[in-house]
Design a protein that fits this description.
Belongs to the cytochrome P450 family. By secondary structure, the protein is mainly α. The chain contains 21 helices and eight strands.
Length: 487
């Protein structure tokens, strides 16, 4: 211990700015459990003010010798995660996700397995985009769409839990697996709900910080040990200690989420009713399904699983942003489309405000305020600031949304910011909601197209307004997001 202190005192690298740290444990005591993005953004302004007038867009934290760098601007994220992607494309290890078997492409380390998976990127891009548009535009399927809307509206009328929202689920599973949700008691949707809620709990900072502790698996075994009290930590690093089950017990359920869609498509193919399902297209390239290598089957399952979560989370949360918006998008649709039909994707260029609304919703209300962490694979220096090998890199998507160098009046929800002048501010589109560099979400085009089509159809057929509180005042639904790894 003495030698450790001597080494630390001997030479201190020029890290990026950050809040004051405690001896030995660093910032472990002050890293917040909730609203991390807001705290990190405030720290960037406060502790970086001596570097630049607006504050540093990169802050450094340390916990028990583990380094964390937060990127709080579009410029910093592009400089490191895009332009230096060979250094910053890895993922940090998160023990609890390994324990439950949540090891799809999103969390996979950057290496040979990840590169093998790349051959399936087209599964999540061009093919998925075409099939999504086919499902949403095919006039023979309009009845299915309206049935889903009826289910959606009925769920809103009795909404007591956000997990009862099945509308987006039915659209996404229909595209990927051919599975249609016809009631709130749908078994597969219940399975997805269960997995999602567990993933939210496991992905909380308390779970991720287990990997900082010397013996994380032993900590899970002896969950009654309360480090929170002994260290006076502001957040509950032992949040997993209150779980009623060992995370390993959820592994079969997580495995089922990946296996079920594959099994269902195989049955549909045997019955000759697979149509244009994405999984069926992949399997059809082999002479027989028995000739599909097991390794490739596994990659397909993981790719589809990651794609589902990306689309589901985005569509699900985005619809909530439509509540109480101005009527300009609906007026534009009424003017261009009229009342005799629903919007089609070919109408997109004629509906610029509706398109801008989608981009502004994703900017101002990102699904994950802190992007899935990256990890540096070698030492690096950025603007004179040292970033050690093995540093966890957190891209603050919410901080980028509030980046004054990129957006005018960034805290204001204003779709017109993306419209060309003179109708808008002609701001550049920033895709930070979908990740960066080699880890960018390959299904982002599929997600954007799905969100656009659903938004246009919802605005055409529904008026979404906020409910009222006990005093009769309008009470918009709170847009609360979990800091978790779920896609």
């Amino acid at each position: 211990m003495a030698s450790f202190i001597v080494v630390k005192a001997k030479k201190k690298p020029n890290y990026s700015p950050g809040p004051p740290a405690d001896p030995l444990i660093g910032h472990l005591r002050v890293i917040p459990f909730e609203n991390q993005d807001a705290t990190f953004h405030a720290w960037a302004k406060e502790y970086g003010k001596f570097r630049t007038f607006l504050g540093s867009d990169v802050i450094h934290l340390e916990a028990l010798g583990n380094h964390i760098v937060v990127l709080d601007s579009v410029e910093a994220a592009n400089d490191l995660l895009e332009r230096r992607s060979p250094i910053y494309s890895d993922r940090p290890h998160i023990l609890v996700f390994d324990m439950v078997g949540m090891n799809d492409i999103v969390l996979m380390p950057y290496g040979e397995a990840f590169r093998k998976y790349q051959k399936f990127r087209s599964l999540q891009t061009k093919k998925a985009r075409a099939l999504a548009l086919n499902l949403l535009e095919n006039k023979n399927r309009h009845e299915m769409f309206f049935n889903m809307q009826v289910l959606y509206v009925s769920s809103l009328l009795t909404l007591s839990d956000r997990r009862e929202f099945r509308f987006a689920t039915s659209v996404i599973t229909g595209i990927l697996y051919g599975h249609q949700v016809v009631s709130k008691d749908d078994e597969y949707t219940k399975l997805i709900d269960h997995q999602s809620m567990i993933a939210v709990n496991l992905g909380q900072p308390g779970g991720a910080l287990l990997d900082i502790l010397p013996f994380p698996e032993a900590f899970l075994k002896y969950r009654e040990i309360d480090l929170t009290h002994s260290l006076s930590i502001q957040y509950n690093i032992c949040s997993l200690g209150s779980l009623e089950q060992d995370p390993r017990e959820w592994r079969p359920m997580f495995r089922r989420v990946y296996d079920y869609p594959y099994e269902q498509v195989e049955k549909k193919m045997d019955g000759g009713v697979a149509e244009d399902l994405i999984l069926a297209r992949v399997l059809a390239k082999f002479s027989t399904r028995n000739s599909v290598p097991e390794e490739e089957i596994e990659y397909v399952k993981l790719a589809i699983g990651a794609m589902y979560r990306a689309a589901m989370e985005t569509v699900w949360s985005f619809v909530l942003t439509l509540v109480g918006i101005d009527k300009r998008a609906q007026e534009e649709i009424d003017l261009v489309i009229g009342s005799e039909r629903l919007p089609e994707f070919e109408d997109k260029d004629s509906l610029p405000y509706a398109t801008a609304l989608v981009h502004e919703g994703l900017r101002r209300h990102p699904v994950i305020p802190l992007a899935i962490p990256h990890r540096s694979v070698q030492d690096d220096v950025y603007k004179g600031m040292f970033i050690p090998k093995g540093t966890t890199i957190l891209a603050s998507v919410m901080g980028m949304a509030l980046d004054e160098k990129t957006h005018k009046n960034p805290s204001v929800f204003s779709p017109s910011r993306f419209l060309p002048k003179p109708d808008g501010d002609d701001e550049p589109l920033v895709g930070s909601a979908f990740g960066f560099g080699r880890r960018i979400c390959p299904g982002r085009h599929f997600v954007l197209d799905s969100v656009w089509m659903l938004t246009a159809k919802i605005l055409t057929t529904l008026d979404l307004s906020a409910g009222r509180d006990e005093n009769g005042n309008l009470a918009p639904p709170p847009l609360e997001f979990s800091h978790t790894v779920s896609r």
